[in-house]
Structures are given as structure tokens and as C-alpha cells.
Amino acid sequence: MDIAAVAALAPVIPVLTIEKTADAVPLARALVKGGLPVLEITLRTRAAIDALKAIAADVPDAVVGAGTVLNEAQLDQAQRAGARFGVSPGCTPALALAIEKSGMPFLPGVQTVSEALALAERGFRLLKFFPADTSGGPAWLRAISAPLPEIQFCPTGGINQENAPSYLGLPNVVCIGGSWVAPRATVAAGRWAEIEKLAAAAAQLKRNSPHP
Ligand code: 3PG
Predict the structure, then answer these.
(1) In this predicted structure, what is the pLDDT of residue 18?
(2) What is the domain-level CATH number for residue 181?
(3) Is 101 a residue of the active site?
(4) pLDDT, average across residues 24-38
(5) Would residue 40 show up in a list of annotated catalytic residues for this protein?
(6) In terms of CB atoms within 10 Å, which of 6, 35, 143, 150 comes out highest?
(7) Is residue 103 part of a domain?
(8) What is the number of the ligand 1 atom nearest to the C-alpha of 67?
(9) Tens of pLDDT along 174-190?
């Protein structure tokens, strides 16, 4: 599955920062049951790699990936743990090279037109726009769709159920990412039914891009 196929699976990619490995599987099950099978585990906690391994092993319907991948070492570590795709907040030439070498489906992050162009020159056509809300939001994406119609985006950062439609309605947005479907306190309390409901609402969000 390439990154476009991963992004086509659901309108929302939950961005998960997991503090306790034991939370990983019930959290992933609740999100998948709610209709969000693509999960991004940020590599920001000590539990992240074990959480990724646990989901890859025990939640076969999830397509689990690693987020906050900043360099080649983290990319390798994530791939060995079973990550099926990767996400980064920005991208350096060294990271782009590592992504190309790994063959891993990947959503590299950009914040500017020049960053998007540099990655498009290397063949990346689907990019994460981060941090979306503070970097121009839907207006930026709309403005860039005319000069750069070939590039598509997964905006992330500051998106929630309320402002999601203003992103998903754009022709160059294939999906969005966000942490709102798995609030920290809800995860800590193990309120999985609540998370399933948040996921179900997010899964109903409509896309306007050429993807299903
Ligand atoms: C992140 O990397 O933290 C994501 O972009 C999630 O952002 P959010 O918490 O604003 O949804």
C-alpha cells in the first residue's frame, strides 16, 4: 500500500501520543471499531515503540504508522517495530533520502510553498501540512491549489470535529490528522466507548478530494 492508499482509507488519521503501553491495544480497537483504521503513534514517549508493536501484532484491522519521525534512526526503529507508514512534522534532505531508501509509505511535513516544491521535485505528491491551523489553515491550502494542483495534503495541527469540514471540503486535502479523537484524559481513564463515539463521528466527515 502506498501513502495515497493509506490516506484513502479514512478521512481522519488519529494522532496518538501513548504514555502507557497497556493502553495501546484497547485504544486502537476503539478507534478501528469507530471507523478509523489508520493510526499514527507519535514517537514522543518511552512507550511509543512498544505501543506500535502491540497494535501491529494484536489489532490486524489497524494500519499503524509512526509519527514525529525526525531522522533515519527513528525511521528504522519504527519500521522494525511494524510501522506501515511514517509521518514527520517537517523534512530535511537527509530525512527525505532515508525515506526514499526505506521504501516506507511516508507523509513528510511542510509549512511553506518552497518546502512543498522541494519535496514534489523528489517525487513526493502527498504531504502533511503542519502546523495547519497556525500556518494559514484552509486559506493557505486553497491558495496553493491553483499554482500547485499536483500536490495533495494531509493537514494536521489544531484540527477538531468542528473545523474539520473546512479542510476536508478542499480539493487538495485527502485526509486530516488530529488528536481530538483520543483526548489524553479519556485515554488515561480508559473510557474506550467514548473514544469509539468520537471516532465514529470523525469517520462520518465527508471529503471533497478525488479520493473516496
Ligand atoms: C501533532 O503532531 O501533535 C499533531 O499534529 C496533532 O496536533 P493536534 O493535537 O493539534 O491535533
Answers:
(1) 97
(2) 3.20.20.70
(3) no
(4) 98
(5) yes
(6) 6
(7) yes
(8) 2
(9) 999 999 999 999 999 99
